[in-house]
Amino acid sequence: MAAGLRSLLVWVAIVFAALVAADVDPVVIKGSHFFYQTNGSEFIIRGVTYQPSNSSANEQADPLGNLAASVSDCMRDIPLLTQLTTNVIRVSYIDPTQDHTSCMDQLQQAGIYVLVDLPTNLTINSTDPTWNLDIYNSWTQRIDALAKFNNTLGFFAGNDIVTNSSNSAAAAFVKAAVRDLKAYMISSNYRKIPIGYEINATEYYDSVPLYMTCGGNASAAIDFLGISDFNLCSNNTSSSFEALTDFYGSYPAPVFLADYGCRDAAGEPRQFEEVQYIYGNNVTSGGIVYEYFPDDENYGLVSTSGSSIIRSPDFTSYSSQIAKITPHSTFSSNYTVTNTITPSCPTGASFSASPTLPPVVNQNVCLCMMNSLSCAATPELDSATALLAYQDLCGGDPADYCPGVYVNGATGTYGAFSMCNINERLSWAMNYTYDSSQCGNDANATIQEPNNTIAQCSEVMAEAGYDGAGTVTTFPTGPIDYTPMQEASATIEVNGYSVLSQGAIAGITIGSIIVLALIVAGAVWFFCKRGYCARKRRSMYQNAESIGSESPDQTRGRRGGGDGTSFLSDDSTGMVEMQPGDERYLGSRSNTEVQSSRDEGSGPGSVGEVSIPHQRQHGPTSQHSGPELVTPISTKELPAFRRQDQPEEKSLASMKFLSPVAQVLPVQAEEN
């Protein structure tokens, strides 16, 4: 029993020792130096840039990811990196959707830490800088991917963004990024991982590093500074390093060479004589040699052939030089921070970045703004299209056209919603710029019902102001919901104008179509109904008067036979042809009958209506005047031309006695 317990304790101790060995000591910053957090010894960077070439024209490779090729390469390369006494690799790109545990754990076991560049295709642009939710979300995703590993040394929030006085205003946006990323890690309960910036030593050498640590807001100051310098060759190494150490001797943050390794002559192997200067002073905290993998200019320490690695002459030279170093180091407990004075921010025509930084990135503020709008960008609009539309709206005079999303790092002028994502900024610009009709006519815009009932948003919108030029200092603490296209009324306000909502417009359109369809259907029914009644009355007249039997080939409803010919009276001199259905030769009616006919004329059968089934056919001799009236045949009797006891006769011969000829007004057809 005791032996079994001892065996169990031994295994527990082995597992615990393995876990301790695998979980490296995090690196922290004190003053201008890196230190191991637990043992307090100084951490000097012996680094190599570790970024394979792009796998395609538009796709970067993640060397730390969980893809089989990346894991295999990571395992393959770690022994060579340790042969160079490497303790840091710099990675320019990671895919936040991949898992990085396998490679990061292997690097931990080898005592290798990782520095990661946050910028990818979403970065702070030198000539048109902005700091917004699009960049923020991209960068925080990369922080999320690596924050859990103790061997994550830090993140670069930009490199060589400011290169001269004309784009120096972009420095304000870098500091805003540093401020917000630090706040994000605190809110996410991550350990304090350093965030820094890289400058090019040959361009704008002094003002930028001073600006990155100036001012009273320590949360916006960079934690470290990397210097990219490819001019430290054998012929000027001493003088260059003397200037560098003089300038950064009192810098308040750690300084190291983020990229170095110049070539004395094209095509010649690099000698790396600068290594002795980099590690032979007490100002710089080491450096990162460029680079492990080969590039188009043959800067690689190795070359690859399939899965095989071939050491280049540069590998041999660097290995020899790094083995000679004896860096100056100290312990945290023995180190007293002396450079405690915060530098003043640079001023003058040569450097234009304002000490006033862009607004804090806050998604809830943007959602409050979106809820207040009557006109917004369509939710499905892609970022590229939204950016073009935004530039069209605000590009002419952004300070005047779009003050709520305007930015100027030189004057320190920033719209309250300038930190929102591109679709939200476009939405604000549309709502501010468009009149009552433009929003509905823009395919990229949509009309929505504003929601001004969110209590947390009232103070936010009041601080921002109508034009969005105010400064928001009150941030909603709870989640803000934004559900677009909630149209509660027929009219809404767009930039102060009352316009129809999309639901109202759709309702009017559909209603108009339905009404038009009913009108057409009613007209068809009406005319069909009229024709049916006329045919029915003509048939009744023919049956009642016994004009003659209907032959099988006769067409129903037509007088004079199936061929449709006219019939004439025997005494046709001076008379016109009498067409089928023509009543102009019937006797006159009484005044009562005439008035009755006139009264009925104001109804549906009045002059001007057309009855298609009874369209009149006039012969070439027709000479009547006045409007043509198309009606059913009258069944009125003609008492003036027969005795009361004489039965009505409508034979052809009897028509001779209809003299003088009198035209009888047609009788209005009766409705069924």
Automatic annotation (TrEMBL):
InterPro entries, A to Z: GH (IPR017853), Glucanosyltransferase (IPR004886), X8 (IPR012946)
Signal peptide (residue range): 1-22
UniProt keyword Transmembrane helix, yes or no: yes
Pfam families (UniProt xref): Glyco_hydro_72 (PF03198), X8 (PF07983)
Region ranges (Disordered): 542-630
Lipoprotein recorded as keyword: yes
Annotated keywords: Disulfide bond, Glycoprotein, GPI-anchor, Lipoprotein, Membrane, Signal, Transferase, Transmembrane, Transmembrane helix
GO cellular component: plasma membrane; side of membrane
Compositionally biased region (Polar residues): 542-554
Occurrences of domain X8 (ranges): 373-459
Segments passing through the bilayer: 504-528
Subcellular location field: Cell membrane
Topology within the bilayer: Lipid-anchor; GPI-anchor
Similarity field: Belongs to the glycosyl hydrolase 72 family.
Function: Splits internally a 1,3-beta-glucan molecule and transfers the newly generated reducing end (the donor) to the non-reducing end of another 1,3-beta-glucan molecule (the acceptor) forming a 1,3-beta linkage, resulting in the elongation of 1,3-beta-glucan chains in the cell wall.
Name recorded for this polypeptide: 1,3-beta-glucanosyltransferase
